[in-house]
Amino acid sequence: MRQIDFLKMHGLGNDFVVLDGRLPGPALAVADYRAVGDRRRGVGYDQFLTIEAAKNGGDAFMRIHNPDGSEAGACGNGTRCVAGLVMNELGKNRIDLETIAGTLVCERVEGGRVRVDMGPARLDAAAIPLSVETDTLSVEIPDAPHTGACCVNMGNPHAVFFVDDVEAIPLTEVGPTLELHPIFPDRANIEFAEIRGPELIRMRVWERGAGITEACGSGACAVLVAAARKGLTGRKADVELDGGTLTIEWREDGHVLMTGPVATSFHGTLDLDRLA
């Protein structure tokens, strides 16, 4: 029997299956991630997060998979959830959480919220990455339903589009087309954002490999960076997502801080072979 014990957690409705990979258990294949991610036959999640032993002197390592089985480099809301677990486990209010995109400093702050230093925003075309060398402040996307994206890499690629009415965007139609556009060789997370004040942005997101989600932490970071680059806001603002609000700050040293809540929904046990 290939059995796993897991936690179901969420950050503003951005939901995760969390597995402690430091314990004995079966190795998971792409088909397993897809089966668990099925919201009718499995558990369902936006990302599958596996806690592993630290590899470079940190407190733990977090591995991220999407519902299609692909591996992701960053997940802001998921980082907060895993960081909260590890801080509780170690009795710490600050930890270093390793990912394939780098080590993230995580802290518990007022109200039980968790703040994550998501690292520096990367802004050059090669780092996004884009298939063309261009100014990432406004990227022209040929034969696409929207163009003029401000592109940011927050450990994963993001394309941000500023619009007058974010609620009017048919995200299920334009999201997949933009995610898979040839200009994004590694695909891209797609955000639409509306400036509602000097310190308030409303955004909706189509996540690479996951589709529409209620929240995306790295996406909220990308949106704030894009807004600040364009002079639409300052370097700190609240970003309002479908599931709630995150506070994002782009420091002068280039690092982006994300602060928000975490929650545990339930724990359970799965027999993976019964999902096949």
Helices and strands in order, then pairings?
Elements: E1 3-11, E2 14-20, H1 30-37, E3 47-52, E4 60-65, E5 71-72, H2 76-90, E6 94-99, E7 102-108, E8 114-120, E9 150-153, E10 157-162, H3 171-179, E11 189-197, E12 200-207, E13 211-212, H4 217-229, E14 236-241, E15 244-250, E16 255-260, E17 263-271
Parallel strand pairs: 2-3, 4-6, 10-11, 12-14
Antiparallel strand pairs: 1-2, 1-17, 3-4, 4-5, 6-7, 7-8, 8-16, 9-10, 11-12, 12-13, 14-15, 15-16
Structural class: alpha+beta
Strand and helix order: EEHEEEHEEEEEHEEEHEEEE
Radius of gyration: 18 Å
Annotated CATH architecture of the largest domain? Roll
CATH topology of the largest domain: Diaminopimelate Epimerase, Chain A, domain 1
Query: What is the CATH H-level superfamily of the largest domain?
Result: Diaminopimelate Epimerase, Chain A, domain 1
Number of alpha- plus pi-helical segments: 4
* Secondary structure: number of strands: 17
**Unreliable parts:** none
What would the principal axes of the Cα set say about the shape?
A: globular
What is the rounded distance between the termini? 13 Å
CATH level 1 name of the largest domain: Alpha Beta
Share in helix:
10-25%
Mean pLDDT: 96
Main beta sheet: strand number and arrangement?
17 strands, mixed
Integer tally of domains: 2
Content of β-strand: 35-45%
